[in-house]
Each structure stands twice: as C-alpha cells, then as structure tokens.
Automatic annotation (TrEMBL):
The keyword Coiled coil does not apply. Belongs to the type-B carboxylesterase/lipase family. This is Carboxylesterase. Pfam families: COesterase. GO terms for molecular function: hydrolase activity. Keywords: Hydrolase. PANTHER family: CARBOXYLIC ESTER HYDROLASE. It comes from Hymenobacter nivis.
Length: 412
C-alpha cells in the first residue's frame, strides 16, 4: 500500500552524453533539491553507443530508447507506491537526454506515459536514417573483422566491443546522404535510428504532423552552447580563424557567406572566435530548439521557451553560457571555487533558486511562470541575473538558417 496524502508530481530525468557516455549515478544528477520542493525525482541509466543504438539485423532497434520506455512504464505502474502521481509525470533531459525526450514525444510507443516534457539544449532532429545507421554498423564490423550479425557479435566481451567502438569515429564514417545531412556536423555518431516502430520518423517531422498531442513542453538552450567543445579543443584561438569560420558555415549552410554576414551584423562587437561559437551554437542548439517550439506550439499542449544567458566566470569567462550549464545550478557546493565550472564566485543564489522554482512549477502545473510560446511571436524568457520575456529574439539570424542543412533531418 502506497503512502497516504496527495500524489506528488513525478520528474523523470534522462542524462546526456552524445548517446555514448554518461550515467545517472553522478553527484550532478542527484537532484535532491527537486525532491525537497515536492517532486518525486526519478533518474535512470539506458544503454548507449553500440549497446543502445547499433543497427544489427535481427536485433531489436533502439535498445537505449526501449530502456527509457521500460522505465516510464515502471513509473506508471509503481510510482504511486512512492507517493508520486503517475498521471502527472514530466520527462526531462539535457543534450542527448533532451533529444531522447523529443524522440519519445513523437513516438506512438510512448503515448500516455508522460504529461509534460523539459528539453534543455536538445533537438527534434536527432535521428539517423537506416542508410546512415548501416554505414556505422558496417564500419564497426570492419574494425572487428566480422559480418554484422547478432550471432557473431555475441562472441566478444563488452570490453572488446567498447574498444572497437572507440575506433569508429565521425571522421571515418561518412553519414551525408542525399536525404539526410551529417548529424551535429561531425561531432557525434550514435543517435536513435528510424525504424518504423519506436522511431517512425525524424521527431521534428512527426511533431509537425501533430504527433506530440496535448503534452506540455519547456524547451530551451544556452547562449554560448558550442563553447563546451570549441574552447576545450582550442578552436577559438586557431590561426586563420576567419577561414575556419567560413569553412564551418559551408558545411552546414548552402549560402555560407550570407549566413556569416547576418551574424556579423547582429553581433558587431564579437571577435571571430565568439562569432564562430555563435554560428555553431545556432546550428546545434538555437535553431533546432526554435523549429521544435514552432511545431509544438501549433498543437494542443502548451509550450514555453527559454534562453539561458548567464555566463560562468571560470577560466576568465571564456566558456560563457556553455552547453550543460543549466544542470549545475542546484549543486553550487560541488562546482564553485577556483576549479568549479561556475567560476570562483559560483552562480547567484537567487538565480539558482528562481530557475529551480520555474522548473518545479512547470512539472506541477505546466506553467513555469511566463507566457506560452506562440509561432510568429516566439516569446522567449531570457534567463540571467534578471529575467526578461523577449519577443522573437535573434529573428534575423534564425531566418538566415531557413533552408540550411540542420542535421540530421531530411533536406528541404
């Protein structure tokens, strides 16, 4: 018999990690602060990389997503015994976890398993075609020197399989096809695979046709999302950065010079490295988030949008509002100080409190505290030490991406 009293909202969290790494069992994902505010918090692990997303004939597809579905079914069947209300379940993810939320939102197999969703720095375009997935599987089998069959794969230990996975990188697998662009511009390889079952189509395409139903959504991204990669690889300090900027734009847009010109005009004070980050952030996070919100806002559920602009002071502030920053506000004791990812001073306590309160309010009611997103108006809450609901922010830059190759969905 379960606990007595009112049922609490349930928040189910999917961790990120490019579908190849990560675990829920790290201090950063110990969201005790959510539980303290009256939410039953659930986190889980799911199969990754070759175990979760390699296409092998005769093996069920998308095992990582199937793990997430199994967890959501468990929540529906059992969470009442822990005081949670199964009918008031919110799924939340960051990065690949947010992409998972989009996949589940568009999947008929997840219908009725959650009422709301939170996507932090994700995309509705994270799905490989069967052709792309087969290219990855072929390269993997080549490394192992085996045919791509389930029977042969079973001969190897997990350690051997993972060692082979490390040799299969985006640099050696050409994923570009006439219908599908290369996911993330070559930064990652494994994604959910279109299978006419768990993933019937690229999530954004399904959502544009109404697959999301009446699910409420909170969607957002960070202003300097690409810095997590560009700073650590030293790209922002490379010589001939102007050439690199145009080459990068050429990879992701049919009119690279025009695209760069629009961003230069919008941010005249930005240095080349900062401009490079802005273009890649738009490609990976900003424009996919806006396109997703546009599709969702035309459905029965309410959609809310945010942009996190608060900048970390770590490493002299070079990382800014980088990818993953939204996760850390509840863990100031872990990540402040000279080596902390928020910088020596950490985040303002009021900002952390306000962000958590907004997320909890959304999980409880579907309203984080600001007006719902509408196509055209595109009201977006800009989150910093002060909060401001902005109408149609970055309109010119987002419009410049119309017709661009935002991977991995079908080209338009």
């Amino acid at each position: 018999m379960g606990p007595r009293g009112p049922r609490r909202p349930v928040l189910v969290f999917f961790h990120g990690g490019a579908f190849v790494l990560g675990t829920s069992n790290v201090p950063l994902y110990d969201e005790a602060n959510f539980a303290k505010q009256g939410v039953v918090f659930v986190s889980l692990n799911y199969r990754l990389g070759i175990e979760g997303f390699l296409k092998i004939p005769g093996v069920p597809s998308n095992l990582g997503i199937r793990d997430q579905l199994a967890a959501l079914r468990w929540v529906q069947a059992n969470i009442a015994n822990l005081g949670g209300g199964p009918a008031n379940t919110t799924v939340m993810g960051e990065s690949a976890g947010a992409m998972s939320v989009a996949v589940l939102l568009a999947s008929p197999t997840a219908r009725g398993l959650f009422r709301r969703g939170i996507m932090m720095s994700g995309s509705g375009q994270a799905a490989l075609s069967g052709v792309q997935a087969s290219r990855i599987a072929a390269q993997y089998a080549k490394v192992l020197k085996i045919p791509n069959t389930a029977r042969v794969h079973r001969r190897f230990t997990p350690e051997q399989l993972l060692a082979a996975q490390a040799q299969v990188t985006p640099k050696i697998v050409h994923l570009e096809t006439a219908e599908h662009a290369e996911p993330t511009g070559g930064l990652a390889l494994f994604f959910p695979v279109i299978d006419d079952d768990i993933v019937p189509a690229v999530p954004l395409d399904g959502l544009r046709k109404g697959a999301g139903g009446a699910v409420d959504m909170l969607v957002g991204y960070n202003s300097d999302g690409a810095n997590y990669c560009l700073v650590s690889t030293g790209l922002l300090k490379k010589n001939r950065l102007n050439l690199i900027l145009y080459k990068a734009a050429r990879l992701v847009h049919p009119a690279p010079a025009a695209l760069v010109a629009v961003h230069k005009k919008a941010y005249p004070k930005k240095k080349l490295g900062e401009l490079f980050s802005t273009v890649i952030t738009a490609y990976q996070f900003q424009v996919p988030s806006v396109r997703l919100a546009d599709a969702l806002a035309r459905q029965a559920g309410r959609t809310h949008m945010y942009e996190l602009g608060w900048r970390s002071s770590v490493a002299g502030g070079v990382y800014g509002a980088y990818h993953g920053l939204a996760l850390v506000f509840g863990h100031r004791a872990l990540i402040t100080g000279p080596r902390g990812v928020l910088g020596p001073a950490g985040a303002p306590a009021a900002l952390a409190t306000q962000m958590q309160a907004a997320w909890v309010a959304f999980a409880k009611t579907g309203n984080p505290g600001w007006a719902a997103y509408r196509p055209g108006a595109r009201g977006t809450m800009y989150i910093n030490t002060t909060w401001q609901l902005q109408p149609n922010p970055h309109a010119n830059e987002i419009q410049a991406w119309a017709g661009g190759a935002l991977a991995p969905g079908p080209r338009r």
